[in-house]
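Supplementary material to the annual report.
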Amino acid sequence: MEKILTRNWNVEGGHTLAHYRSSGGYEAFRKALGLTPEAIIDEVKLSNLRGRGGAGFPTGVKWGFLPRESDVPKYLVINADEGEPGTFKDRYIMERDPHRLLEGCLISAWALGLKATYIYIRGEMVFGAEQLEAAIEELHEAGLLGEDIQGSGLSHDIHVHRGAGAYICGEETALIESLEGKAGQPRLKPPFPAVVGVFGCPTIVNNVETIACVPTIIERGGEWFAEQGSERNGGPKLAQLSGRVKNPGTYEVPSGLNLREFIFDEAWGGGILGDGALKGVIPGGSSCPVLTPDEIDVGMDFDQLMKAGSMGGTSGVIVISEDVCIVRLAARTAHFYHHESCGQCTPCREGTGWVARILDEIEAGRGRMEDLDLLLEICDNVEGNTICPLGDAMAMPVRAFLMKYRDEFEQHIREGACPFPEW
Amino acid sequence: MSTETRSETSEPLAFSPGAEERFQRVLGKYPNTRAALLPSLYLAQEDFGYLSVQAMEYVAERLALPPSKVLQVATFYTMYYKKPHGTHHIEVCTSVPCCMMGGYGVVRHLEGKLGIGVGETTPDGRFTLTEAECLAGCGHAPLMQINGRYHEHLTPERIDEILDGLD
Ligand SMILES: Cc1cc2nc3c(=O)[nH]c(=O)nc-3n(C[C@H](O)[C@H](O)[C@H](O)COP(=O)(O)O)c2cc1C
Ligand code: SF4
Ligand code: FES
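Predicted assembly:
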């Protein structure tokens, strides 16, 4: 398959404006300036591009929610808070090919009539922020950013805003709060950001990879992009492999690639570390329910994984081998979401911690059989009862671990100890 | 703690000329001053060493915000240090993919080598050790960051080598 999103990743100097331009960079932006905003939005709709930040919402449809006319400025906010365990793709786009993202921002700005873009990048990604700042500086020098860009009438600026260590700021309304200089606590929706977003203005929030796809959609056409994926899931995407797999890494794959092939084929994962047996697969970052080995003959797209009882999420595939303790994995997952809860909703703040403590007790050999039903009950009480989906992100994977590997939990309780080696 | 920080002097705090210049640029990025709070706290932390009460009050004054709002934000985010920190901040990822690949082994090795526990700073002020949640490098586990730079595919020997190379 032709490489698009990863084309410049392993090229010396691939992150520079000179290199990006020599491989056709900013031609899509030039082409876009000759198109009407409506025509661009139509191409994006046609492309079947779906948000790469986790929820898979169709990007063209989201763009359609932004009011055309507005008395106040409209903004683009790039979600570069990448923090879901198992996800490591946006960081590489920003470090190795920042201009692909920036060109996508400029095309979006033209199509949607946006005053400025804020790239909200995780505080920990120091190098990524430096690469972006340098690329933005290059654009200013080349006259591709600022007032009346290339005589087009478009004025636009792009700013980098660093987060400061809070996973919840990846949730789009928490991110907006944080960008406004506040604690990152999610807002009730509606209103949605497209209507009332940052600084009270209409705002589009899109993931890094989502916007990095836009130049290709304009260059090749929406129809071409749609053909690179599966039904209703357009384009190439960045799928990631981590955990107990031979060749972990970030790979550019067609949307809808078979999950088993992705893990076992020599072109990608190459099979299980140490040639052990597979125990389970988390297909889209740690908030997605685990799939058992007999459930992974499925295409990696939002619809097929949903049908299989899990979620596409961020395409961060986490591989679990037979020698990994599921109870410990469930406990670690619950601790993550407990640690990252913003504390606004009681079910999330209390429930995530309660689940984590019970799982710790079971892992330590002090669990009771009745704890298992209690865990399920707490998960039920958290799910769907919170302001944002972080509570669900704990409840859904923990429930799946417990339902699908219940005998492992019971063994811990019966034997009063964890049967697996320390890690 | 031997690390000297400007936060601890009794003179009134003020940004150094370099920090002041960056502060002015930050203000220009947003339609209101409140939005400049996160970057201003980073500036204060770099310039003064850590976010003492004095440093937070200074930021509040510069942005015309109530000190309570500044405190609320400074305590919400983990990357703002409310007490002095080691020169080298080591953060080891132990989130789900990394913990399967030896993340906790790295933590144990560092605890033994540095003689401190997670969340602590060595008595000479050189190292602070913390556990981090997923650092978006899961394919290169186990890994750590030192002052924001990634060190991946760690082994005990690699860790010793990296630490020996620091000043
Ligand atoms: C708890 C939580 C954390 C999230 N973290 C991220 C993130 O780190 N990056 C991201 O792009 N989207 C994240 N999202 C999804 C965003 O809320 C939002 O859907 C996304 O930025 C929209 O962009 P997209 O349509 O291009 O995917 C998160 C959502 C939740 C509920
Ligand atoms: S679900 Fe959790 S993280 Fe989300 S708003 Fe409620 S308390 Fe905060
Ligand atoms: S889990 Fe360690 S970097 Fe993602």
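The first strand of chain B starts at residue 88 and ends at 93.
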